[in-house]
TrEMBL record:
Residues covered by the CN hydrolase domain: 1-238
PROSITE patterns referenced in this protein's UniProt entry, alphabetically: CN_HYDROLASE, UPF0012
Keyword Hydrolase: yes
Family note: Belongs to the carbon-nitrogen hydrolase superfamily. NIT1/NIT2 family.
InterPro entries per the UniProt record, alphabetical: C-N_Hydrolase, C-N_Hydrolase_sf, De_GSH_amidase, UPF0012_CS
Domain of life: Bacteria
Pfam families attached to this UniProt entry: CN_hydrolase (PF00795)
Name of the protein this chain belongs to: Hydrolase
Record's keyword terms, sorted: Hydrolase
UniProt-recorded Gene Ontology molecular function terms: hydrolase activity
Lineage of source species: Bacteria, Pseudomonadati, Pseudomonadota, Gammaproteobacteria, Enterobacterales
Length: 263
């Protein structure tokens, strides 16, 4: 299955970001990709104005997503991204959505909010309450995670036990001491310990690292972007997952129960 990572720097204006997303969708479709993963919070951002992303939040039937859904209507491409949507108060939800054929086919609200490294996502954002769904793309099952979720192995393990062959991770990974190393180690670990592919796509730009990468079920990085905008393709192989799980049956050999979400 051919997949694509669309890495870019999110602008302040949602109209510009919608145009960028649609361009990447069209390029991925023309290249024959079945799945395109975009970064986290692609609607709007400004590092000089931390509250902008929440103030600019739009509902799922707002103009930003309406344009992307229209662009997906005649396509079999599945596009995954996150955006902030209003929660009915002065806050927002970091919602990950999967688009295909003009419809939202799956949604996941980010469980783990980024209250770390002197940042406080929970000041403006409401955490999700449910384990992400799985969706089918081609012959593979895809589990949804978002950015900071990668630091919590329970979620990746739960999705793998639910049947995921691939984990997607739209992200906006902030630069900082050791942060690039953390990114590589965590993405690789989640792939290897669950014998699944991980597609981790980072926003690039002045604050975030970019560095999107795909790691296979045995911990091999098979595709990678640098620090600038890029559209990177890779081939995923369901047989590679099957073979890895036969050779390294960590899911079958585990001694702990399936992780459950706290109420």
């Amino acid at each position: 299955m051919k997949v694509a990572m669309g890495q870019f720097a999110v602008a302040r204006e949602w109209q510009k970001n919608a145009h960028t997303c649609i361009e990447l969708m069209q390029q991925a479709q023309q290249a024959g990709a079945a799945l395109l993963v975009l970064p986290e919070a692609v609607l709007a951002t400004d590092i000089q104005d931390p509250g902008l992303a929440v103030r600019e939040a739009q509902p799922l039937d707002g103009p930003f997503l309406t344009q992307l859904l229209a662009a997906s209507r005649e396509s079999t491409l599945t596009t995954i991204l996150t955006l902030y949507v209003p929660d009915g108060s002065q806050r927002a939800i970091n919602a990950q959505v999967a688009l295909r054929g003009g419809e939202i086919i799956a949604r996941y609200d980010k469980l783990h909010l980024y209250d770390a490294f002197a940042m406080q996502e929970s000041q403006r954002v409401t955490a999700g309450l449910a384990v992400p769904p799985l969706l089918e793309v081609g012959e593979m099952k895809v589990g949804m995670m978002t950015c900071y979720d990668i630091r919590f192995p329970e979620l990746a393990r739960r999705l793998a036990l639910d049947g995921a062959d691939v984990l997607v991770l739209p992200s906006a990974w902030v630069r900082g001491p050791l942060k690039e190393m953390h990114w590589d180690v965590l993405v690789t670990a989640r792939a290897l310990e669950n014998t699944c592919y991980v597609i981790a796509v980072g926003e690039c730009g002045p604050r975030n690292i970019g560095s999107s990468l795909i790691v296979d079920p045995l911990g091999v990085a098979i595709a990678r972007a640098a620090e600038s905008p890029a559209l990177v393709f890779a081939e995923l192989d369901a047989q590679r997952v099957k073979s890895a799980r036969e050779r390294l049956p960590v899911l079958a050999n585990r001694r702990f129960s399936r992780p459950e979400l706290d109420a």
